[in-house]
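INTERNAL AUDIT FORM
Audit reference: QA-55
Scope: verify that the stored structure record matches its stored sequence.
Auditor: D.O.
Record contents follow.
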Amino acid sequence: MPEDREVSAVARSNILAIRRRALLAGGGAVLAMPSLAHAQSVLGGGAPAPAPALGPVAIAPPPVAAPNAPRAANAEITVDRAHAAPIPIAVPDFGGGTGSQVSQIVLADLVGSGLFRAIDNGNPPHGLVPDFASWKALGTQALVTGGTTGDGNTLRVEFRLWDVLSGQQIQGTALTTQGGNYRRVAHKIADVAYERLLGDKGYFDTRVVYVAQSGPKDRRVKRLAIMDQDGANNRFLSDGSSLVLTPRFNPTRDQIAFMSYANKRPRVYLFDLGSGRQSVLGDFSGITLSPRFSPDGGGIVMAETRGGGSDIVAMGVGGGGARRLTESGAIDVSPCYSPDGSQIVFNSDRGGDQQLYLMGAGGGGVRRISFGNGRYASPVWSPRGDLIAFTRLNGGTFAIGVMHPDGSGERILSESYYCDGATFCPNGRVLMFYKETAGSGGTATMYSVDITGFNERTVITPTSASDPAWSPLLA
């Protein structure tokens, strides 16, 4: 992998073996995203239901149930066959201007998941209660209607989600936020529609941190960057003066961990997204690399090189309490906690070839889980706990795949000349990763794909891009 060659160039004496035998999995401040105000909901047109706090409370009256609108707190649309037959959904214009932008983003989020199909709005009659006969004639099954009001400083968005087949309102919600924050409002509306129609939490109100690449392949400049999951609001977090690799989000804090070559000494750093401050994590004699946070955000696990190999170490994010979890004398890298924090998956060549292993979070009980053809690397646990994604190299071809934690059910989702760096969205349904093309002019591009292997899509970025890491849902 390219990162291996870069590591070895900096420290040949103690990591040459890693370059040959292992895939190493893994500034300025980003502008803080303005927080949304509190939202109130009316489920099926009934009484207001509690909604999660979305930052400073600014209560907005929820939409009132429309006269004569059917009510059903448990209205459902069947989505068992959504992969083969995406749900036909319409999101008519929310009223021009900002309203148009909101409705377009909502529809783009839902259609981009591969589980929904956009219906041409045509010109159905408008009203407080939709003309369900007109929407049915267009083949619509789900409908999102809404409108916006505001004075430039604040924005209020009201929307309703409808089951067209039964003629029932599923949910009505009002959101109030700062005027320029319409994209987050749209993503939250899409999250609500996704969850009410599919039963899973949405993943649209999230961010992705990644490595932005520019320049020729042999002199590539790599900067930390962050953006919304749909590619909007891109910001560079570092200036490119030092090589950076494998950024990871803290699941509970506005913080990332990454590997940096600052001062020509590769080490793991922490970056505070609120202040822009960064600091070295711990004081180790060897190179530290491939960091991952613990599920509670208070700890971190990573690899440290020793001699010709590397060990897995864990410590607090404050830099104290370092514990060595493996001392096999082999190359143990790319650790990742299970969602409950009880286990760690990592890759190692302790058996003579690079494979995936599980152990307890405190070390010990190591067992191999990968037994397919080829070498395995870069494991990452699904937030659901049911799958582990990985990179596999077999016969000169790289692939992104998933397997169950016991090693069963392995399946390949995507293959290419080179691919790596899988990361799960918060609900575990979608993976993001990157591919590189061959040759001196080769570029890196990020992609997303459903865990069933369908709906592979290019993730648009302003530069070549690698090493994505998906954030949790924003507060």
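Auditor finding: record pair retrieved intact. The chain has two domains: 2-29+237-470, 40-198.
Action required: none
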